[in-house]
């Protein structure tokens, strides 16, 4: 309605003046009260407050209005009578149909299509736990991480997982931005209570990109109330953001404290091995075969986000389809020349990893490669093995030789141990990630 040019125009005034001669006083005053009238091409649109008004005009006055309008305009005119209440109802119905989740969920964003690695394992496990016990364990669940690392994908997959277990679950997936604009449109229509009612009924509310609440005071107030209603009713809330709650400056303290009251998990950048797995997954989705050396090359040059990684796979696919060429390292280097130019890729060697780990822990290389069982040495050795396995292309057999071990099992169990500790111990994870980033950047 707001977009239409609506006015009580001169033509309508003249039509009314003509009608005054034909209708009784009551009818005239009711007609004069109509504010919304517009003339578009050959039609005079008369907007009535409700259906009763509309039916009355159509039944009793259509002929008189048509004749008066023809007289004023000087040609035949169609009279269209429209009930504003009906328009609102129609709009409402359309929005309702789109409301509970499914239509806004991306069918590709399922757990089946989500590659799990160390960077998102905790978030994944938390989402599964929440989808299987909504409102009962981690509430709210707050997921944060840099752009393009799979937060939205994780949220949608959680919704699908819950729907698989309970088809009737009412789910809303929205972003803070959409929430704000929908809220304002409801306020404009004088229907804020209806807006709240829709949210009150859900079993799972997924709110993406919560950072867009920053600075939006009215939206924060509304969200605060909805949050409390859902929380008190034991309904599950999952939030995502590009930063942890305490870094969200410009969001009310009472909201931040609620975000902090549940479980907060981070999604970080995937390591090389996980990137290769993601590339393979995307490649099979797009129907392209990517040789391992090309996947490793891609994983090394794209360090920003999974979205960029996916973009690179799409570019390779498009190039090979159009040129009819098979994909190999040469082709990949040509197609992704711009990305390559931004990075100076050097392959990471096991030697450089051992040096970096020794220098960080202030230990001797000789000791790291020995069998000594000192606690600190064992930890550094395991980290060096883990980094060598995830950051280099060396097969397990040559890693065993590097670390002077008789068989691969020592390397495998060291990697398992490091992964396990990273999941449990945040400080330990920070050290491993720091070393990893330093080696990739060097
Ligand atoms: N682990 C993963 N496995 C498979 N695909 C992934 C993974 N992580 C991200 N993606 C893909 O990367 C793309 C970007 O992910 P998504 O939109 O979920 O990121 P985001 O963190 O929500 O980004 P933003 O902060 O910009 O909203 C999507 O196509 C998604 O499928």
Automatic annotation (TrEMBL):
Pfam families attached to this UniProt entry: Bac_DnaA, Bac_DnaA_C, DnaA_N
Q: Does the keyword RNA-binding apply?
A: no
Segments of this protein annotated with the region Domain IV, binds dsDNA? 321-442
Select a single GO molecular function from the record's annotations and give it: DNA replication origin binding
Q: Where is this region: Domain III, AAA+ region?
A: 104-320
SUPFAM superfamilies attached to this UniProt entry: P-loop containing nucleoside triphosphate hydrolases (SSF52540), TrpR-like (SSF48295)
Domain AAA+ ATPase spans what residues?
137-271
Residues in Chromosomal replication initiator DnaA C-terminal domain copies: 349-418
Instruction: Give the keywords, sorted.
Output: ATP-binding, Cytoplasm, DNA replication, DNA-binding, Lipid-binding, Nucleotide-binding
Q: Name a biological process GO annotation.
A: regulation of DNA replication
Location in or out of the cell: Cytoplasm
* Stored InterPro entries: AAA+_ATPase, Chromosome_initiator_DnaA, Chromosome_initiator_DnaA-like, DnaA_C, DnaA_dom, DnaA_N_dom, DnaA_N_sf, P-loop_NTPase
- Which function does this protein serve? Plays an essential role in the initiation and regulation of chromosomal replication. ATP-DnaA binds to the origin of replication (oriC) to initiate formation of the DNA replication initiation complex once per cell cycle. Binds the DnaA box (a 9 base pair repeat at the origin) and separates the double-stranded (ds)DNA. Forms a right-handed helical filament on oriC DNA; dsDNA binds to the exterior of the filament while single-stranded (ss)DNA is stabiized in the filament's interior.
The UniProt subunit note reads as follows: Oligomerizes as a right-handed, spiral filament on DNA at oriC.
Q: What is known of its domains?
A: Domain I is involved in oligomerization and binding regulators, domain II is flexibile and of varying length in different bacteria, domain III forms the AAA+ region, while domain IV binds dsDNA.
> Per the similarity annotation, which family is this?
Belongs to the DnaA family.
Q: What is this protein called?
A: Chromosomal replication initiator protein DnaA
Q: Name the source organism.
A: Sulfurihydrogenibium azorense (strain DSM 15241 / OCM 825 / Az-Fu1)
- Which lineage ranks, top first, belong to the organism behind this chain? Bacteria, Pseudomonadati, Aquificota, Aquificia, Aquificales
């Amino acid at each position: 309605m707001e977009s239409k040019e609506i006015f009580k125009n001169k033509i309508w005034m003249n039509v009314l003046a003509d009608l005054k001669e034909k209708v009784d006083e009551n009818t005239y005053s009711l007609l004069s009260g109509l504010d919304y009238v517009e003339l578009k091409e050959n039609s005079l649109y008369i907007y009535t407050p409700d259906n009763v008004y509309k039916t009355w005009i159509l039944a009793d006055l259509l002929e008189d209005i048509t004749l008066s309008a023809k007289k004023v305009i000087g040609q035949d005119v169609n009279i269209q009578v429209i009930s504003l209440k009906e328009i609102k109802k129609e709009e409402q119905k359309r929005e309702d149909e789109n409301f509970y989740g499914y239509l806004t969920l991306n069918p590709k964003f399922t757990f089946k299509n989500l590659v799990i690695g160390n960077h998102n394992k905790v978030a994944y496990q938390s989402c599964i736990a929440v989808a299987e016990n909504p409102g009962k364990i981690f509430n709210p669940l707050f997921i944060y991480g840099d752009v393009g690392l799979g937060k939205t994908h994780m949220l949608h997959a959680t919704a699908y997982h819950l729907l698989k277990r309970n088809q009737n679950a009412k789910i809303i997936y929205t972003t803070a931005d959409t929430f704000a604009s929908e809220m304002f449109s409801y306020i404009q229509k004088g229907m804020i209570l209806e807006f709240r009612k829709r949210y009150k009924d859900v079993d799972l509310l997924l709110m993406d990109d919560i950072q867009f609440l920053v600075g939006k005071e009215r939206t924060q107030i509304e969200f605060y109330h909805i949050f409390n209603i859902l929380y008190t009713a034991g309904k599950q809330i999952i939030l995502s953001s590009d930063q942890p709650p305490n870094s969200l400056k410009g969001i009310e303290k009472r909201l931040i404290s609620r975000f902090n009251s549940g479980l907060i998990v981070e999604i970080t950048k995937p390591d090389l091995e996980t990137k290769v797995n993601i590339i393979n997954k995307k490649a099979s989705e797009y129907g392209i075969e990517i040789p391992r050396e090309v996947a490793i090359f891609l994983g090394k040059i794209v360090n920003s986000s999974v979205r960029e990684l996916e973009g690179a796979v799409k570019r390779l696919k498009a190039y090979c389809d159009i040129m009819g060429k098979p994909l190999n390292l040469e082709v990949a280097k040509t197609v992704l020349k711009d990305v390559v130019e931004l990075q100076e890729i050097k392959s990471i060697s096991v030697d450089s990893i051992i040096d970096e780990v020794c220098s960080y822990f202030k230990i001797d290389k000789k000791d790291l490669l020995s069998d000594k069982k000192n606690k600190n040495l064992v930890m550094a050795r395991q980290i060096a093995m883990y980094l060598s396995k995830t950051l280099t292309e060396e097969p397990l057999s040559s890693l065993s030789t590097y670390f002077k071990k008789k068989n691969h099992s020592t390397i495998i169990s060291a990697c398992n141990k490091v992964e396990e500790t990273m999941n449990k111990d945040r400080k330990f994870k920070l050290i491993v990630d720091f070393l990893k980033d330093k080696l990739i950047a060097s």
